[in-house]
Amino acid sequence: MSDSPSPSSRDTSGADQGQPFERQFLGPLYWGIWLFVGLLWLLAYAPHRLRLGLAILLGGLYRRAYPKRRRIVARNLSLCFPEASDETRSDWLRRHFILQAYALLDLGRLWFRPADYLMSHTRVSDPDAFAQLVAGGGVVLTGHGAGLEWVGHFFTMNMTGSAMYKPFGRNRLLNWLFERGRERHGARVYPRAQGLKPHLRHLRAGQGFFYIADEDLGAADSVFAPFFGVEKATVPLAGKIAALGRVPVYPALGQLDLGDGSYRLLILPQTVIPQEADESAAAAINSTLERLIRIDPPQYMWSLKLFKTRPNAAREVYD
Questions:
Q1: Average pLDDT of the segment spanning 73-77
Q2: What span, in angstroms and rounded, lies between the C-alpha atoms of 59 and 76?
Q3: Which has more confidence, 119 or 188?
Q4: For residue 208, which of 154, 255, 236, 247 has the smallest C-alpha distance?
Q5: Which pTM was predicted?
């Protein structure tokens, strides 16, 4: 199933130590999480049809049980695709919840199945572009697709690289599980609070930086630029990071195939993002993400409040 390059050797020397396992993780407070981890382990070895059936059930339950989240998805789709029919957007909304549910249930395969299995269940849209990235390093400009976690693991199975992460609040066990899962193939993950220095070090060594560029982080560190025609608070740093790291930018998005449970790394050739952290860079970032998302809109995580921060005290777009 895979048409990707074979894994390259990775230098993991000097890797930072992650959060250690703590004895308190075995206490009753965390038993529910461990029960869910056990379910994920079972699903990692279950047939695709079982995972799909559970995803359809879970996605439907979540869609009906959390009307606020459903309204966010519907609002984003109506803002970004006003030309689409109501029926089309309703179908995209339904598929979106199924895709996100399947990706959640698939954490077990990522955490417990071996690298050769994960490689064999991943396709690459442009093997030449991916080979160039592996050989020379680069900033991987991406967003919250259904396959985000999977293709993040896929990158680390092929090359050394780094990524930022946002801790799960005070739940130290969830932090430990996700950090351990993301680092199992050699990735380096750093809390956002550590800034860009560790990532620039990796880039200047010819490695990769998995840069998620679509979050609304507020007005302080953002500029506004159109995203599907709607002004969006955007952190305009992708081009500047690439210039400082002396590497190109590769747009990419992870997609999930509900037909067989495989994943696709949708990767585009090198693209130029302005180095100046201004509106032109933000517009280029958003335009690049649009190109990726339009290929299969339900794959994107429309449940994010993409337009929470409004320009010039404009009216709130969410209920």
A1: 98
A2: 18
A3: 119
A4: 247
A5: 0.89
- Residues 48-70 have pLDDT tens digits of 999 999 999 999 999 999 999 99
Give me the helix-helix angle, 172-183 and 31-44, nearest 10°: 30
* φ, ψ (nearest 5 deg) of residue 299: -70, -20
Predicted pLDDT at 171: 83
> pLDDT tens-digit profile of 162-174?
988 877 767 888 8
Domain boundaries, the chain: 23-313
Helix 31-44 vs helix 48-65: angle between axes, to the nearest 10 degrees? 140
